[in-house]
Structure formats: C-alpha cells, structure tokens
Task: inverse folding
C-alpha cells in the first residue's frame, strides 16, 4: 500500500483505509485503489474518504476506485442491500459504507450479484444434451482430492490467469501468492466441490465451491453450498462447458444433501450470470465505485 490511514479520536479508532497504486488505468487515467475501508460512523467515513482523495492527488493519481484491497484477487466491492446472514467468504459491510462513498462523489463503475438456487434437483436443463457433441468425446471431468492438492491448485492457477485476463480490473498474480490464497482454506475445503476438466489430458476448466460455513453459525446446520468460481480456458468457450460444469456441481450438492446452492459474486456482464439466472433468483447485489480525483 502507498498509505495505510487510521482516523482516531482520544485513542478510539473511528475509521481506516488503505491507498494503493493500481496496475490498471480507468478512463485512461492514472488510477489508485481505496481499500480496507471501515468506518464507525458517517462523519468519520466522509472525513477519511476526503483525506484519501487528497493523498491520491499527492501521488499523482487521477482516478480512485474501491473498495478494493490492492487487487481483485483479494477483498473488493460493497454489499449494497440486505446484509443479513452473509454467506462464507462474501464481502460484508454496514449499508452505510456505500452511502459514504456515494456522498463522497463516487459513482458505481461495477455491478455484481449472487444467485440463490433453491430446489436444485428440479433444475437440470442442458448438460446431457450438450455432452452428445463430439467435443466431449475425449473430455474428462473429475473431482480433485486432498492428496494431490498442490497439483490441482497449480492447474487452477494456470486456467485462472488465462480465463480472467480480460476481466474488469484484472491484475497479474504470482503463482506463489495464488497458492497462498488457497492454502489458507485447505483444511476446510470439501474436495467433492472442486471439479477439474481435461481435454487430451490438458486442464482446460474448473469449478470451485465450498460449504456455507457461516450458515452453521445461525442455523446450527449447513444446507447451502457456494459455487465460488467457474472458469474455462477461452480457447474452449462456446461448447457449453460452463453449463455442464455447473450441473455436475449441482448433482454433487444434491447427492450430499444440500438444499440450496449460491452462485457467488457474478459481474453483471459475465456470461456465467446468464446461465445462473436460469437456475435461481438474484439474492444480493454489490457495487464497485470510482471517481475522478482532479
């Protein structure tokens, strides 16, 4: 981070944020990110966003985007409606925080949503028909296993950097940093929800999910699993592989007794969202914000 800022009064922390230099340019302007944002009240939050804006100018940053903790591989976006019972690994914030950004002059530059699928056993649509296409004749879909965790996560890295390269505000991540993100949750991963796709023995896609451990905190049981990431190497788009992977994921969820599936954090322009909306209803929305600093 260029700066890490705390607002305090008489030893009590009222707000915090970080300022980052971005690899990307927005509106062809030198861009920075405001991340790690938190505020106990609107007054402290507005003071802090104003301060960060002035600091950004000092660093020659012409545009600010956020909330974004350095890059999109980490935490980013604000939840903007209905913040009750957030699911595991979902961005969470008081609803006052996006109001602070809006009042500070930020505009929405990215919209995202999550879809909740109830009664997934009633919603199989396409995969058996799609699989009859010749493309699938030498295609293998298999579940990962803990013993070969390193192999699978390295393959997931290779697919991810190809698949997400054109995503909004994408930035490069080293293999080491990527592996560390998954190592943090290795012990709570259910490997039945990591699907790998191979064609001619080459990894070309994956789906990664995880049980909603947060649900266990307020319901004393976990009935929901989260489809967190689904990716296919761009060379193999247009074969319906995303839909096939999604339905394999759904089948496993049903077999393991889950009643709900969440398709998490989809960018509004993402084609996977069009697939997800055929299976469930939008349950929550999120925004990313930006502003010209000059």
Result:
């Amino acid at each position: 981070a260029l700066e890490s800022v705390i607002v305090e009064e008489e030893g009590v922390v009222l707000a915090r944020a970080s300022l980052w230099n971005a690899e990307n340019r927005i509106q062809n302007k030198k861009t920075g990110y405001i991340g790690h944002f938190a505020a106990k009240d609107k007054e402290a939050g507005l003071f802090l966003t104003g301060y960060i804006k002035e600091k950004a100018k000092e660093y020659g940053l012409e545009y600010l985007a956020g909330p974004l903790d350095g890059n999109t591989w980490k935490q980013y976006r604000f939840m903007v409606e209905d913040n009750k019972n957030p699911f595991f690994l979902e961005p969470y914030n008081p609803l006052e925080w996006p109001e602070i950004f809006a009042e500070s002059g930020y505009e929405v530059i990215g919209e995202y949503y999550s879809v909740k699928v109830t009664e997934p056993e009633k919603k199989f649509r396409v995969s058996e028909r799609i699989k009859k296409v010749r493309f699938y004749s030498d295609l293998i879909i298999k579940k990962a296993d803990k013993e070969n965790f390193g192999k699978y996560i390295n393959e997931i890295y290779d697919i991810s950097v190809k698949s997400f390269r054109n995503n909004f505000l994408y930035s490069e991540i080293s293999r080491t940093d990527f592996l560390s993100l998954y190592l943090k949750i290795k012990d709570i991963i259910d490997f039945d929800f990591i699907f790998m796709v191979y064609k001619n023995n080459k990894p070309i896609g994956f789906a990664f999910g995880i049980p909603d451990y947060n649900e266990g905190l307020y319901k004393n049981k976990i009935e929901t699993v989260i489809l967190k990431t689904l990716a296919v190497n761009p060379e193999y788009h247009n074969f319906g592989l995303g839909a096939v992977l999604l339905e394999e994921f759904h089948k496993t969820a049903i077999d393991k007794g889950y009643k709900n599936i969440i398709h998490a954090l989809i960018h509004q322009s993402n084609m996977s969202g069009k697939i997800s909306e055929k299976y469930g209803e939008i349950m929550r929305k999120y925004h990313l914000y930006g502003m010209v600093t000059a």
User: Anything to note?
Assistant: Helices lie at 42-58, 96-103, 127-130, 149-163, 175-183, 213-219, 241-255, 271-276.
